[in-house]
């Protein structure tokens, strides 16, 4: 079932157009109600639900189109990045409605520590078989591969005599 | 009149799916002063084969809990594909899977924990269960932080690799165009990482 924009709810903000990975969410020509988004190629839609999740108006449904499966089933999704939950509403054609809630993330959005905030590795570590942070993430040298620890070696003091 | 933009960079990553995002993270970890740019034909937040989310991670060794070894995995893949595999390549990706999954866990991907053992809930010998609705946005956040949003070119479809005139085996960049406004892009790069996935529309449901 492809996505369908309910024109009366759509404000034309473009979030769905921006996010659609298939590049098939398009704007209509601006009419008296302003521009509206619509799924320009339902047969190419891969039903990823991204337009549904990203629409701030809840204007996008996944449902069978009238000419193909006019049966009344539909799926709506509300995704909340504040509470980190995704809420699913499944409407069956016989009127049954089911709701599901799932967590989407365990940390706040924007909290990832970027790679440039890790201590800079020595260039010779590029020759080791490990990726970034891998040694630590595996809890030490578990694969039996000899590897220098990802620490900058201490400067050896040289005593000058005489 | 088509606009042309030239982008000079140290590292060019083509494709902003899971592989391209991972390459962005890794490249920035190892090279703090490089200019790294990424060209993606959709929006990196929701693009590639993981755009819609996943409910499981299909390969996780469990080295930490001694569930499997990398060698077990290579044996399994060899049996599954009736021997027609490059074992070295299978080994090579398998040994990196665990640490990557641990990194995802740290970033906030909800992986089902197994409270008794401190490992993850298994769905099969190699699978672990996740609430993966936001799998891609989480990984994309890491990539965006690594490169900076100004170095990510969304909606740019790369069509050709540029080869060095002196050495036809050397790639020195790529060209592409913005699918919205047709702006033509010429990327010149010292190194190019091709992470562009499979062919377009070969499978009806896929990013191409
Ligand atoms: S479901 Fe996915 S592919 Fe289909 S229109 Fe929406 S965003 Fe695009
Ligand atoms: S995101 Fe929703 S409101 Fe905005 S253009 Fe798309 S359908 Fe309309």
Write the CATH fold name of the largest domain in chain A.
Alpha-Beta Plaits
Number of strands of chain B: 10
Name the CATH superfamily assignment of the largest domain in chain B.
FAD/NAD(P)-binding domain
Low-confidence stretches of chain A: 141-156
Q: Could you tell me which ligands this complex binds, including any ions or cofactors?
A: iron/sulfur cluster
* Shape call of chain B: globular
Q: What share of the residues of chain A does DSSP label as strand, in percent?
A: 15-25%
Number of helices of chain B: 4
- In sequence order, what are the helices and strands of chain A, one letter per element? EHEEHEEEEH
List unreliable stretches of 5+ residues of chain B: 202-208
Q: What is the mean pLDDT of chain A? A: 82
* Largest sheet features of chain A: 5 strands, antiparallel
Radius of gyration of chain A: 26 Å
- Quaternary structure: heterodimer
- The CATH architecture of the largest domain in chain B is 3-Layer(bba) Sandwich
- Biggest sheet details of chain B: 6 strands, mixed
The succession of helices and strands of chain B, N to C, reads EHEEHHEEEHEEEE
Q: Widest sheet of chain B: strand order? A: 7-2-1-10-9-8
Based on DSSP secondary structure assignment, what is the total number of beta strands of chain A? 7
Spell out the blueprint of helices and strands:
The complex is a heterodimer of chains A (162) and B (208).
Chain A: E1 3-5, H1 15-19, E2 25-27, E3 37-39, H2 50-54, E4 60-63, E5 74-80, E6 85-91, E7 97-103, H3 134-137
Antiparallel strand pairs in A: 1-4, 2-3, 4-5, 5-6, 6-7
Chain B: E1 4-14, H1 18-30, E2 36-39, E3 54-57, H2 70-80, H3 87-107, E4 113-114, E5 119-120, E6 128-132, H4 135-147, E7 152-153, E8 156-163, E9 171-178, E10 184-194
Parallel strand pairs in B: 1-2, 1-10, 2-7
Antiparallel strand pairs in B: 3-6, 4-5, 8-9, 9-10
One iron/sulfur cluster (SF4) is lined by residues 5, 10-16, 37, 55, 57, 59-60 of chain A.
């Amino acid at each position: 079932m492809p996505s369908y924009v309910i024109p009366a709810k759509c404000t034309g903000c473009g979030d769905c157009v921006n996010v659609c990975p298939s590049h098939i969410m398009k704007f209509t020509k601006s009419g008296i109600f302003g521009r509206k988004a619509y799924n320009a190629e339902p047969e190419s839609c891969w039903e990823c639900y991204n337009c549904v999740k990203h629409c701030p108006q809840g204007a996008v449904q996944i449902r069978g189109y009238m000419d193909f499966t006019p049966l009344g089933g539909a799926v709506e999704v509300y995704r909340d990045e504040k509470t980190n939950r995704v809420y699913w509403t499944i409407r069956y054609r016989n009127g049954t409605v089911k709701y599901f809630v799932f967590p989407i993330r365990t940390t706040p959005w924007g909290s990832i520590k970027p790679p440039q905030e890790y201590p800079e590795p020595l260039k010779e570590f590029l020759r080791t078989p490990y990726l970034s942070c891998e040694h630590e993430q595996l809890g030490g040298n578990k694969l039996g591969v000899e590897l220098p620890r990802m620490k900058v070696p201490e400067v050896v003091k040289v005593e000058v005599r005489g | 009149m088509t606009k042309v933009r030239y982008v000079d960079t140290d590292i060019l990553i083509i494709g902003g799916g899971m592989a391209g995002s991972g390459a962005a993270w890794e490249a920035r970890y190892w090279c703090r002063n490089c200019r790294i740019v990424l060209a993606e034909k959709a929006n990196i937040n929701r693009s590639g084969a993981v755009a819609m989310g996943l409910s499981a991670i299909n390969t996780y060794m469990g080295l930490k809990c001694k569930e499997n070894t990398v060698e077990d995995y290579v044996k399994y893949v060899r049996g599954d594909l009736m021997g027609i595999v490059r074992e070295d390549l299978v080994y090579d990706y398998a040994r990196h899977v665990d640490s990557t999954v641990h990194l995802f866990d740290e970033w906030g991907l909800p992986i089902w924990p197994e409270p008794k053992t401190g490992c993850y809930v298994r769905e099969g010998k190699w699978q672990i269960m996740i609430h993966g609705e936001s799998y891609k946005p989480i990984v994309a956040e890491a990539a965006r932080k690594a490169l900076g949003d100004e170095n990510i070119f969304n909606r740019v479809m790369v069509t050709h690799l540029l080869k060095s005139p002196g050495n036809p085996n050397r790639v020195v960049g790529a060209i592409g165009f913005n699918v919205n406004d047709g702006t033509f892009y010429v990327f010149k790069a010292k190194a190019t990482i091709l992470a562009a996935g499979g062919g377009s529309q070969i499978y009806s449901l896929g990013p191409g």
